[in-house]
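Sat 14:20. Reprocessing the chain from the morning session after the first attempt stalled halfway. Input below, unchanged.
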Amino acid sequence: MRIGLFTDTYTPDINGVVSSIVTLQKELEKNGHDVYVITNHKAARMKKEGNVLRLPGLELKWLYGYKLSTPYHFAAKEEIRKMNLDVIHVHTEFGVGMFGRIVAKYLNIPVVTTYHTMYEDYTHYINRFELDEVEKVSKKMVSTFSRMISDSAQAVISPSQKTKETLQKYGVKTPIYVIPTGLNFEKFNRRNIDMEKVKEIRHQYGIQEDENVIVFVGRIAQEKSIDVPIEGFRYVKNPKTKLMIVGGGPQLPELQEMVKNYHLEDKVIFTDKKTRDEVPLYYACADCFVSASLTETQGMTYIESLACELPVFARPDDVLKDLVIENDSGFLFETPQEFAEKLDCFFELSEEERDAFRKRAKEKVIQYDSNVFYSKVISVYYQAIDDFEDAYEVVRIKMLDDYVRIYVENDKDDQPLHILISLEDYFTYKIRLHAMLDRYAVADFQRKEISLEAYRSAIRKLRIKDYTRKEMETYFNHISGLSKDSAQSILDELEEKGYINDYRYVCDKMDSMQFSLTGKIKIRRVMIAKGVDPEVVDKALMNYDDNLEVDKAKRMAEKLMISVKDKSISMKKKTILKKLMLQGFDMGVATECMKLLDFTNEDENAALEKTILKAQRNYARRFQGNQLRYKIVMYCVQKGFQREKVINKLEEMEWNNE
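Finished this time. Tokens:
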């Protein structure tokens, strides 16, 4: 396979990204693959060194000497074409990384990207005044940019589960493979390290044979939190313990000043920047390793130090899971004081106990063998190539009002797929005629299409009639494939744009229900049954005119006086009162209304006679004599007439019949 590694940082630079790239390059070449490294250098002209192509770059001294290139190099594009690459592996997001993605699209080559850097932990470089709003905007930009960059590749390699979870939080849809960076253990094996040179280094920095050393290796920058172990040395009791800080970086002068202020010049050693080949010698100078950083995507220096048999002192972090285990391969601390306390305890251990620590430390990194690293990465390459071959070509684009319908096809489908996408995705993915979309992007568009269609159907539905949020949620529940989260997101958008407004809905319904003489209690009950929040209902009902409630109840009661027949006046009053309450009027309003009704024209005697005749018609076919008389009496009593009056009326009616 012919592989292109694109990176802004490469040898002679020393950092975790370079370590990862060099390890991968050597393992790929060892297994017979052709590897080309496309990087940059501080020069105005392109330079080729064997299989390494260096592009013109500008050094940013304020950013630890980071070299930045323009995202496009015409001459380099032709050189890369000649390489006939099978896959492009991008290791940086800017400069050369952007160029790699452009070339991949131009030459139709699949892309794999490794997310080496947690950029949200580096926003202090642009937020010098530590403004909350700037920090918030910066992290949002990091999230959006990381998602766009990752989703432009066929595969993403994450050095740790922590990094994968962060990318998923950003919304990355491209497949993410967790592959810890491999390490060539031979380089960090103490048996292969020149111990004479180690003695020379210790002598150079004035370290006595009976003195203990804890080492930090890495970039001297704010995100590494090197100030924490320096602070901790104010509390270290063992006078024969020293801290060696190996590396260079923008925070070096500040930390040197900090050491002077704490009067720790005889305890803390700064070596400044060292070459990659020298680094194992400095690990070998020490008895243990420390890092307080919480910004690592994997933490190669932890692995290197463990491979060099150094127990690790570190702050708890997800990247250390199964790597640094308390009182087994190292120690975890939260504060400078806790660091100092545990460091003193470690150096109080016997030589045999410390040897056991060294042995366990080395055992923890077996999983990071470079051969395993190579095997996993090459598998991702083949998967990315397969996925790229399954890509779709955009064969037609149809612009709609607020959406775009695209038609895509590949060799495996009989007919083109037509997918509705948002304008945001249309511009984000830079979709144009004959552009290629990988199958993950197409699958993502198809998932999103369900939401878009649901949103459009909801708009059509709401333009005809108002519905509550709960009613629309029930409607969405019947749309196949629409997730609950997507439904809630659509509902939020509909509310934000004013298509759904439960408060307005209640106010409108309140007007129509008042017109139909419905009481406040029933209005509230009906609205809550429709899923409206009780607080929203109560807020709307605050506009309800209570003075009209009695008048409305009176009009309803007057209608009921006509419809409620064949009952005594007392029973008629009770029936009307009950019906008013069922219609949603509260007891106080209904009672007040009953006082306003005029029953003086009610002829209870005539009503009783009608009730008796009705009962007689109902029971005459089944009962005779005293049984019929008993049934009539009971029927009338149930209608609210007094038993004695019923009996008297029966006798009167029987006498008249005679």
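Residues 121-127 have pLDDT under 50 and may be disordered.
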